[in-house]
């Protein structure tokens, strides 16, 4: 399975010690799916970690970000989008997530962003919340 994790999910996984984003990162590290990244999505992740409100929340754990970024860099599957999409009108950066998903032939894009979630699917890619994605695995494991 190939997955794109939106920036909001990745940031939450670092800022919060438990919850669905953390569980999703653990699932990725356990090899349950491949994480797709592109240069544009990675740059957005790096940029968001520099926002003052994020920096303030990270004060007690300043070493977490470099290690997390290295984990992404070395263990993610890198793709280079070849098309520029305009599917999301209200937030242009959301289109970078879709471009990465399309280029990487993702099965899912996991996000908490309403602009993306309202699409439901795009080019056969399921767009779901972190909670819905975790539930997919729980249902599959119980069968």
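^ structure tokens above, recovered residues below v
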């Amino acid at each position: 399975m190939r997955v794109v994790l939106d920036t909001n999910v990745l940031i939450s996984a670092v800022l919060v010690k438990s919850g669905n984003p953390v569980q999703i990162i653990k699932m990725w590290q356990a090899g349950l799916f491949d994480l797709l990244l592109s240069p544009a999505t990675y740059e957005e992740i790096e940029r968001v970690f520099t926002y003052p409100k994020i920096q303030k929340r990270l004060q007690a754990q300043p070493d977490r970000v470099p290690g997390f970024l290295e984990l992404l860099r070395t263990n993610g599957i890198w793709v280079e989008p070849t098309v520029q999409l305009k599917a999301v009108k209200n937030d242009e950066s959301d289109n970078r997530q879709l471009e990465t998903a399309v280029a990487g032939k993702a099965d899912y894009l996991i996000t908490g962003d309403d602009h993306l979630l309202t699409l439901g699917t795009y080019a056969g890619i399921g767009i779901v919340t972190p909670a819905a994605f975790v539930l997919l695995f729980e249902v599959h494991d119980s069968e």
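The chain has a mean pLDDT of 92.
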